[in-house]
Amino acid sequence: MNQLQIFKNDAFEVRATLEDGTVLFDAETVARCLGFTEKKNDVEYVMWRRVNSHLKNVSADVSKGDMIPEPMVYKLAFKASNETAEKFQDWLAIEVIPQIRKTGSYMPDASALSPELKLMNAIVQQMNQDALSRLRLEGEMKETKAEILEIREVVEIKPFENWRDDTNKIINKICRKTGDYQDTRKKIYEALDRRAGTKVNQRLDNMRARAILAGTSRSKADSLGILDVIAEDKKLIEIYTAIVKEMAIKKGVS
């Protein structure tokens, strides 16, 4: 089956072909089945930038008219991560691909098969389902490994070594992810007060007052902040970095 053929059921329609024993799928119809689309002026377009972002480590950029093999289809379906994507994978793995490999075309109705062929068909379907389950499991394991590496990066923040820059970067990431730009630092400082048994705002006022008494200009004294208070106390640095790490892990931020 070298000619491009259309396979469809009540929910999906995809184009595919068989070349040298390899099943290839039309990238555009796969993207549409998985929901990688957007509407502009009542016209539905494929979001090729998003599709290619999911395939960047395994393929060159694809676009309209390109064909992709089974593993790339499953990778896109895993990234889509929704009920429709799972149904699409099941349809391909259980019905379409076995029939393409066996007959060179898609035959959704197996009722006319002999008992022996029905048994063979059931075995092939189960083999494909098992393969699909393995692919999903491998994908989940890769995602989990990536999350562990991200958490490790957070945990490896070391107090006293560029702690200001490191914690600021993570706090900014937390703010971007949660959209909570005003209260994130406030919550961290409140947690610092509770855990250290101190009042950092009061200590900041005292620091500014001492600076003015020592001859520092008002503007320079006012530029002092809570991080300057924390920097004076090694115990506060340790507690502060620990709180930032905990919040980052809780929010799923690396």
Question: Describe it for me?
Answer:
This is Bro-N domain-containing protein. It comes from Proteiniclasticum aestuarii. Pfam families: Bro-N. The chain has 254 residues and is an alpha+beta fold. The chain folds into 2 domains: 5-151, no CATH class; 157-251, no CATH class. The chain has 11 helices and 6 strands. The protein has helices spanning 27-34, 48-55, 70-80, 83-103, 115-155, 163-178, 183-196, 200-213, 218-222, 226-231, 234-251, and strands at residues 5-8, 13-19, 22-26, 37-40, 43-46, 67-69. The strands form 2 sheets. The protein has a 4-stranded antiparallel sheet. Helix 6 packs parallel to helix 11 (234-251). Mean pLDDT is 78; it is low at 105-109.
Protein topology:
Elements: E1 5-8, E2 13-19, E3 22-26, H1 27-34, E4 37-40, E5 43-46, H2 48-55, E6 67-69, H3 70-80, H4 83-103, H5 115-155, H6 163-178, H7 183-196, H8 200-213, H9 218-222, H10 226-231, H11 234-251
Write down the secondary-structure element order. EEEHEEHEHHHHHHHHH
Q: What overall form do the CA principal axes indicate?
A: elongated
Strand content: 5-15%
> Average pLDDT across residues?
78
Q: End-to-end span in angstroms? A: 47 Å
The main β sheet shows up as: 4 strands, antiparallel
Number of domains: 2
Q: What is the number of helices?
A: 11
Proportion of residues in helical segments:
55-70%
| Computed Rg | 29 Å
How is the largest sheet built, in terms of strand order?
Answer: 1-2-3-6
Uncertain segments are 105-109
Q: Say how many strands there are.
A: 6
Structural class: alpha+beta
